[in-house]
Design goal:
endopeptidase fold (from Nostoc punctiforme); 8 strands; two-stranded antiparallel sheet; single chain; six-stranded antiparallel β-sheet
């Protein structure tokens, strides 16, 4: 119980700090969007602080811009499930409604459509809270990575391992402690505690939102951070 209270206090403190330095990003303030644009925010999810501290970036959630049949902008995202979320709703969910939008240089309309169609192939899949290599369930930056990979053969974002991240923060350690018993690599007696589980999964490959943003092939076209 005490640990849960401390985690909640740290998250509240984190959200307040971010709110002090961000302004709301209204849809009418955004540039003209294109299908295939990659959009980032600071999520309000319970794991957002752990991601921020592990990666050193306020980009803790990411998706791909698409449009519905009426031309309304949507965000293809891996959240509770992989789904298409109205852009206005997606922006509202983020801390301070701040967003950053990146665009792949030279992406044409046919290629952009191929990317969003590749992402839509995964709609309905569950969220992967373990950031595991299997694609049976997906986390946010994984969806972006595999959509560009499958559509264009382009691997956006440097593939890292858990060992490359800063896992020393209390938020990261608490996340590992909470999730290790059901981790696919650690369940069924493969690990006895969080530390032995972490030893098993340190080499697990993953792509973070920050790694996507750092890809030199993506150009920042808008930021309200």
């Amino acid at each position: 119980m005490c640990r849960d209270v401390m985690m909640a206090l740290r998250l509240v403190s984190f959200l307040l700090c971010v709110l002090l330095v961000t302004l709301p990003a209204r849809s009418q303030d955004l540039p003209e969007l294109q299908r295939g644009d990659v959009i980032f925010q600071t999520s309000r999810s319970g794991q957002s602080l752990a991601i921020l501290e592990a990666t050193g970036s306020r980009y803790t959630h990411v998706g791909i811009i698409d449009f519905d049949d009426r031309g309304a902008p949507m965000v293809l995202e891996a959240a509770q499930t992989t789904r298409a979320t109205p852009l206005s709703e997606w922006i509202t969910r983020g801390v301070g409604q701040a967003v950053a939008i990146y665009r792949l240089e030279g992406l044409d309309g046919a290629e952009a459509l191929a990317v969003t169609q590749a992402a839509r192939q995964h709609i309905g899949k569950g969220y992967d809270p373990y950031f595991y290599r299997s694609e049976d369930a997906l986390y946010c930056s994984e969806l972006v990575h595999i959509a560009f990979r499958d559509a264009l053969g382009l691997r956006l974002g440097k593939v890292q391992t858990l060992a490359d991240l800063d896992l020393g923060s209390a938020a990261a350690r608490d996340l590992i402690s909470d999730r290790w018993p059901s981790h696919p690599a650690c369940a069924d007696g493969a690990a006895q505690d969080a530390e032995s589980c972490l030893a098993l999964i340190r080499a697990e490959p993953l792509v973070t939102p920050e790694a996507l943003a750092q890809d030199a092939r993506l150009r920042l076209i808008h930021s309200s951070f």
